[in-house]
Amino acid sequence: MGITSTRQAYEFPTGIAPPLGAVRAWLREQLGGVGRTTIADTELLTTELVTNAHEHADGVAELRVSVPSGRDVVRIEVDDRRPRLRPRRVIKDDPTSPHGRGLALVEAVSTEWGVDTGAGFKTVWAEIPAL
């Protein structure tokens, strides 16, 4: 696979919306050795987690991607600086609303996802099967 257990990090510019096209291109570059389905799923979930951090947690601090040694998954981690704000699924009454499906997608596509917190930061992570 293109990357190993070493984490590759993407740092975001401050004060502007996340450059999602550039993020997806960076992911494709990092994941050169995995299948197209894995890359597409990784792009989708990364876009969702980055967008959530931008819209709900005052922006993204850092994105990391890795293929943990000895495991057949791609792990993505998105940091923000609002550790007390926990992600939660929201059930929308309006099926035409463009919002409210991000974490449902994360749950559906990932093998596992979760939240880790530390002093002044939160990491939302997801693992995608490496096919």
From TrEMBL:
The molecular function GO annotations come to: ATP binding; protein serine/threonine kinase activity
What is the name of the protein in this document?
A: ATP-binding protein
- What does the UniProt keyword field contain? ATP-binding, Kinase, Nucleotide-binding, Serine/threonine-protein kinase, Transferase
Q: Which organism is it from?
A: Amycolatopsis keratiniphila subsp. keratiniphila
Start and end residues of each Histidine kinase/HSP90-like ATPase domain: 22-126
Endoplasmic reticulum as a keyword of this entry, yes or no, is no
Q: What is the lineage of its organism?
A: Bacteria, Bacillati, Actinomycetota, Actinomycetes, Pseudonocardiales
